[in-house]
Amino acid sequence: MAPKDGTMHPIWDNIDRQMGQLFMMGFDGTTVDQQIRSLIEDYHVGNILLNAKNLKSAEETTKLILELQTIARDAGHPVPLMIALDQENGGVNSLFDEIYIRQFPSAMGIAATGSKQLAREVASATAQELKAVGVNWIMGPVLDVLTNVRNQPLGVRTSGDDPQEVSQYGVEVMKGYQEAGLVTCGKHFPSYGNLEFIGSEADVPVIKESLEQLSLSALVPFRNAISNGLDAMMVGGVAMSSAGVNVMHACLSEQVVDGLLRKDLKFGGVVVSECLEMEALTHNIGVGGGTVMAMKAGCDLILLCRSYPIQLEALNGLKLGVENGMISRTRIHQSLKRVLAMKSRCTSWEQALGPGGTNTLSMMQPSHTSLSTRAYDSSITLVRDTQTLLPLTQILEPDEELLLLTPLVKPLPASAVSRSILDNMATSPDWDKSSTAGSGENVFREFGRSLARQRSGRVLHTSYTSTGVRPIHESLIDRVSAVVVVTADSNRNLYQHGFTKHVSMICKSQYSQTGERYEKPVVVVSVSSPYDFATDPAIGTYICTYDFTETALQALVKVLFGDLSPTGALPGTISRSQKLNQSRQHWLVESWNEERDAEALDALLDALRENGSHGELASVSSSSFLLRSDDVEEAHFVVRNSTTHALYGFCSSYFFRSTGTAVIGSIIVEPTRRKLSIGHSLHNRAIQTLLHRTGVRRFQLGSRLPSVYLGIPTANPVERKRLRQWFAQLGWNTALSRPVCTVMLRPLSTWVAPEGLTKSLQTAEIDYDLVYGWEYADSIIDHVKTSSRQGVMEIYKLALNGAPHSGIIRAKRPDDGAILGSVVIYNNQSVIAEYVPALKEANVVGGGVSSPVISPSVGEYATLMQGLILLGIRQVRKSGADAVILDCVDGDGNFDSLSAMGFSVLHTFEEVTCDATTWKMMQAA
């Protein structure tokens, strides 16, 4: 509430009212007590943090929040309270309600799905549920990068150890929250991803990385979230000790808050301190002094979780700091303006006093339940199954017994932000017994029952502890036919690691009644951190679920018994660090010989088409893969039967010198010889060859020239998931994939341009012309250099050489003739048509529009793009064509406008790229 001239409204002249807006406070209990009432009424506290101890159910939560808002209104608060909550999903949810609140995977579980869109959908659904009960501020997303994955308390609460991947998912989660109407709070700045624990549990953990090291890795997600509109940032209470920085508590440091966060990262939103009730701070500084230090450092909101005397000490400390001049009124006004601006974006009295409650939640329930199932089903990751033990139905007879061994673990934490790090520091933390999903023992017991129901056979279930393998365990192992061992953060609970290795050793040394040695099947399941056995090949069958909520374990049951094919992939560098030669067989890979192999490749393509699931190959022949261009270095490979000359596999690869892009254009394996590592062998040979090209800057999966596979085919969801996982295991970062598609417009004979499009084209101050031939090459090639897309330059050169069957439409500025945009057009007699199989697939006389390039300086990008494509359609129609193909369309941004013009999707793909450094590091490893 502020006048338009930027001055403060007179209602804020009261210093106590101002300061009350600069605190976030919590309380104990599930009902309003006198202490929180007094903080709101007498001290004007404007922000409340709720945690699991406050929340019994969705219905009770709605009533509690409504009562808090009513108290604030009746006490004369000019604006509603901010009601904040942790709801990170996985095992970290403050609000749990079996009926109304859905369970979703942890941050790392979502990253394992490889879908940024799913991350956004889940975040939006989570925020919608919180908004329905009256919450308007979610304490997330978690933006920490696990730069040290070992023994770090955050675990699956982060997306992983890759800064770019954490950044991508963090931004999508943030946008999902905001779309649902909540404001966001990134955490835990500057990073909780690599903490060192020194001294006692009460001591503050330390960040030893330098600011330069943090900037290159840990700060990347925070920087990108800020640039994408993050509302608030929580600064942690950790210490920092490295060259150039020596900080006792980050949230009390001007160097960290005002210098690093405000000035260097240019964050203009609300800064929230870590809870100042931390033991080390109260002993070393005192809460009153700490509050003043936090405000001077640049924090806007001071967090105090639940101790009423300490909360009063903080309030009095800030007031004393203002009175004695340590904190200026101007400084208070700055923070107040930020807080009020944030409140204006997410709440009003109408919203605060009229939450949707359980009625709204009931309407969401069907779609959110479906989303939860889809998310968990997509996250389960099969890291290894070297002996093909899955599904268990193929190794267990109905009358044979299965043994389930689970650790005795504490309940899943319902983490309020005040305990987000401190509660996790201890080796045996005192988890809140009112946790979200009950004790781990209860969850595992239900998991055992689900296994028994699913297989209609006997499942023996017992737990294990730090006492290790006991005689009862050995007896049960001898008795059963297969064993499933569950671990939960064995890197921090080392007894689990030792127990699992011991069980594995026992199972590898079994003897039959006849005295023959054999290996009893063992499946190891990590239900929290995937790092437990990710790099241990001795564990032959290893599955990750990323949390041990009941919903996650239900998906696991489906995987174990073959009702669900696991499609998740280990997130971050842990996936890419898997050796490229994981395959069990190494096939002889030979270079392509056209004279020898062309006929055999055509036969292989026929076999794939007969298989019925490769629509993108409908009109492809062996010649479709051969560019024969001086500007492109081609290297194609085959696995073949040297006796029969039949091809078992084919891989095409290209190096486009104009952009420094190395491309895997296709990997094709004979249908009856899949899962024999032929694809692995072809892929490894192609990557090794491409790495030796001079000037390689990046790698790409999918090629616009030739336009056979633009990336991973996505028409079949099951096949898409399988291929995404396969390529992820080879090292491709599928989490950063880009949707692309080929679209078609037909019939042209009756097509009419959308109303208004022709008029906008006529009124635009742009000149268009159509040119043919190499005499126009200089200006066009100079313009096309502004595009870094693979194959675009080569398509333009083919068009310039291909008159009269191909030409270029230019959009020029009238005053100086500068080219603002261009597009290639061609007919089915053009050389370009040979590399666009979709044109033949249309089975009519057709033509194509390809490779629009818009100058970076153009403001009206979409208008110019539509204008070029419209003119391209008209020109193709003039040639007598009845269909037009537009290849390699950006599925994220352009398709809506094309759909309005009448285009329909022909084939869809996911283009995947990565930098060359990544592959070089993997090869070196």
UniProtKB/TrEMBL annotation:
Q: Does the keyword Cell membrane apply?
A: no
Query: So which domain of life are we looking at?
Result: Eukaryota
Keywords from the named record: Carbohydrate metabolism, Glycoprotein, Glycosidase, Hydrolase
* Gene Ontology biological-process annotations: carbohydrate metabolic process; peptidoglycan turnover
GO MF terms, alphabetically ordered: acyltransferase activity, transferring groups other than amino-acyl groups; hydrolase activity, hydrolyzing O-glycosyl compounds
UniProt domain N-acetyltransferase: residue ranges: 630-701
Residues forming the Glycoside hydrolase family 3 N-terminal domain are: 15-341
Q: Give the family this protein belongs to, as stated in its UniProt record.
A: Belongs to the glycosyl hydrolase 3 family.
Q: What is this protein called?
A: Glycoside hydrolase family 3 N-terminal domain-containing protein
Q: Which organism is it from?
A: Talaromyces rugulosus (Penicillium rugulosum)
Upper lineage: Eukaryota, Fungi, Dikarya, Ascomycota, Pezizomycotina
